[in-house]
Write a structure and sequence with these properties.
Helix content is about 30%, strand content about 5%. The chain is mainly α and about 130 residues long. The chain has one domain (about 5-125). The mean pLDDT is about 90.
Length: about 130
């Protein structure tokens, strides 16, 4: 999981999300055991940055114990993989780094759609 002082956590805070791992000190990421993920993640409204998952079905297949998570049951999983080419290159890691405003707009649209009703997700997509 992204630590509380990471760029990913900062994006979430700036978008008005209440990041469940915001209290983890430092930057970068931290490995988590399944018990910690269950303890905090089961009731989360959203799950963003879902790693390699491209579909909701893939998420449930690879982590069947997490099928009871609120975000999965309510189909609120989002990943930053909307702009991946046939070779697997992800534009989030290319142009996204010089367009933080677009990433932030995507996250605001996810968490607070009423604030940006005309914004179409650019880097993120809801997992089908």
């Amino acid at each position: 999981m992204a630590r509380g002082e990471s760029f990913a956590a900062r994006f979430l805070a700036d978008a008005g999300a209440d990041y469940i791992w915001k209290d983890l000190p430092g930057t970068g990421s931290m490995p988590m055991d399944i018990e910690m993920v269950y303890e905090r993640g089961a009731a989360a409204d959203f799950w963003v940055n879902t790693g390699n998952w491209a579909t909701l079905a893939q998420a449930v297949r690879s982590a069947p114990r997490m099928a009871t998570f609120k975000a999965i049951k309510e189909k609120r999983l989002y990943n930053r993989n909307r702009r991946v080419n046939d070779s697997g290159a992800n534009d989030y890691w290319e142009s996204g780094m010089v367009q933080p405003d677009v990433i932030l707009a995507d996250l605001i649209r996810i968490f607070h759609p009423e604030l940006l009703p005309n914004h179409e997700l650019y880097y993120y997509q809801r997992l089908p």
